[in-house]
Design goal:
alpha/beta; five-stranded parallel sheet
Length: 585
């Protein structure tokens, strides 16, 4: 981690080519240096933050005044920072009875702020929780005494978690965990606080800024989806080809325990929906042996979506893995103990994340914890099936090699699509897909679950959810379109995004046929589309052109009644009764 002074050198870099994002920082203590750290960290992550920073202790004024500078800034992200130091000062002024109600009172105040923001503007809110101050007034008895400050601050943090679950646009930055990681002496400088009022030390600022930017970057779609794993001395100690299965270090004693705990963590990530792949210089049968036969292995072959073990260079093998998974390299993390292999991959593959693992395997896990690589903003039932979906996709890739003609391949897949409206079951998955989809995303609008739920009360909105399956298995939910009536005879495609897993299947044609049929049934004459370029969606810049739309003054226009249905080898699910009008019910 760079020091604060090293970090702020990023502010001298040219930012004209970076994505510009408006953010607001509202704090009850001075935030000037935190602002510097966040902007510098943003540049490091290819984001140019345009920041509004209020005077300190003006949070309520800025939020409850409808014409405040905060609302005029039109921030995509709002940072709310209440300090533990101010909190304890307020707490000491209360009588004993009010102290026991302190946590609930504070949560009610915070919820009032959140509701006011949500009723006035559209923004993602990042609320800092509270790093603990133990004043030792009651010693260990504080853990049982409701009138103790440490008891109340822990209760506030607990209740904040529930508040975060209630509002899909509310994200909790966990200062408490950061302090646990770096220690209170590094989080807070008494001298600095007395002289300037700042509640975060210079040493802590880069770490806090990183966690903040991690949240924003993740909400902008920059998330890690896959871990590519080396094996020897990464998942177990020793070299399987030389030492044999009985002599590799793996188990509850000695250094083998470190590898077991690493595997357990990786398995939990897989259960959450992170894709696991193996890239090893080994004979394939030898490399698979521990997964199949070693009694202490936590990871099994069933956990691995793509398994590559040969004597080719790892950069080439990772490129093959990326082709099978059809995700961006910037969505991949490569774990390898060998500095030579790490450097080789780094030189040949731009964008891939390659942690510099410590030499001592006992330090692997804590080091990976500190990187905070796997931000997420929701989970869905489909996450648990992701490994199987990609294992099946690998079979499709192999199967395609049997065909010279793409048309014959598509026909042979026996693809079947289901179309439905939004409902309580698919809404979490669509919200997640909205955050994850970057390459096939025409306008890159990031919907939250609340946004999708609100569609139900807007009669001008028509959402379409697409599922796909074929002879190999189910792809699950793979696409989402939002049509909005902007005139009595015109529909606008507010957003169109799809999973890259199903590219080159002809799904675009099927989707367009579906929405044109809907438009005809409702007597709409025209469908308008728009492409908004980002750093990642260049692949769809000609999407509307290729589908027959005509460019007209920054938008793409399709005449519904002159449209000729496009060829598609995807069949409608006849067992699923569809209404010609897609609703949110």
């Amino acid at each position: 981690m760079k020091s604060f002074n090293e970090l702020k050198k990023n502010l001298k870099k040219d930012t004209s080519h970076l994505k510009k994002i408006n953010i607001s920082i509202l704090g009850d203590s001075p935030t000037q240096l935190l602002n510097v750290a966040i902007r510098a960290t943003g540049i490091q992550n290819n984001i140019n933050f345009n920041t509004f920073e209020s005077d300190f202790n003006q949070i309520e004024f800025q939020i409850f005044s409808d014409n405040s500078e905060y609302y005029h800034h039109k921030s995509s992200y709002t940072l709310l920072i209440y300090s533990s130091q101010h909190l304890i000062g307020t707490f000491y002024k209360l009588n004993n009875n009010d102290r026991t109600l302190f946590a609930e009172t504070k949560i009610n105040e915070l919820e009032a702020l959140i509701n006011k923001i949500n009723n006035t503007c559209k923004t993602q809110i990042i609320l800092f929780n509270f790093n603990e101050i133990n004043d030792r007034i009651f010693g260990s008895y504080s853990n049982k005494n409701e009138s103790a400050f440490i008891y109340q601050i822990r209760k506030i943090n607990y209740l904040l978690s529930g508040l975060g679950s209630k509002y899909s646009n509310l994200h909790i930055l966990d200062l408490s965990s950061i302090q646990n990681e770096i220690g209170s002496s590094k989080m807070f400088s008494s001298t600095q606080y007395v002289t300037s009022g700042m509640v975060f030390s210079l040493e802590a600022l880069p770490i806090i800024a990183k966690h903040c930017v991690d949240i924003i970057s993740g909400l902008e779609g920059n998330i890690k989806k896959c871990i590519v794993l080396d094996l020897d001395n990464t998942l177990w100690g020793g070299i399987i080809g030389d030492d044999g299965i009985e002599n590799i270090q793996l188990g509850g004693l000695g250094i083998g325990k470190a590898f077991i705990e690493l595997q357990t963590w990786i398995k939990e990530l897989k259960n959450r929906g992170i894709i696991l792949a193996v890239c090893s210089k080994n004979n394939e049968d030898t490399a698979k042996l521990p997964f199949e036969k070693h009694p202490e292995m936590v990871l099994k072959l069933a956990d691995i979506s793509v398994f590559v073990a040969n004597w080719e260079n790892k950069a080439s093998n990772i490129k093959y893995i990326q082709k099978v998974l059809n995700i961006g390299f910037d969505s991949m993390v490569f774990l390898d103990d060998n500095p030579f292999e790490r450097n080789l991959v780094k030189e040949h593959i731009s964008g891939i994340c390659i942690p510099e693992l410590p030499e001592d395997p006992a330090l692997y896990l804590e080091y990976l914890y500190s990187l905070n690589l796997f931000e997420t903003f929701g989970v869905s039932e489909e996450d648990g099936d992701r490994t199987l979906q990609y294992q099946i996709e690998a079979k499709r890739v192999q199967f395609q090699k049997n065909f010279v003609n793409e048309e014959d391949y598509l026909k042979s897949l026996n693809m079947v699509a289901t179309v439905e409206g939004l409902n309580e079951f698919n809404t979490p998955r669509i919200a997640q897909l909205a955050q994850r989809s970057n390459q096939f995303n025409l306008r890159t609008i990031r919907y939250t679950e609340n946004d999708l739920i609100n569609f139900q009360t807007d009669k001008s909105i028509h959402p379409f959810v697409f599922h796909l399956e074929d002879k190999f298995g189910k792809h699950g939910i793979i696409g989402f379109i939002v049509l909005k009536e902007i005139a009595p005879n015109i529909l606008f495609i507010e957003n169109w995004f799809m999973s890259c897993r199903i590219l080159k299947r002809g799904m675009e044609n099927y989707i367009l046929n579906t929405i044109v049929e809907f438009a005809k049934n409702k007597n709409y004459k025209f469908i308008y589309g728009e492409y908004i370029p980002t750093q990642k969606n260049n692949m769809v810049k000609d999407h509307y052109k290729n589908l027959g739309f005509v460019y007209n003054n920054e938008f793409w226009l399709l005449d519904v009644f002159s449209y000729l249905s496009k060829i598609s080898y995807i069949h409608k699910n006849q067992t699923h009764v569809e209404s010609p009008i897609i609703t949110t019910a």
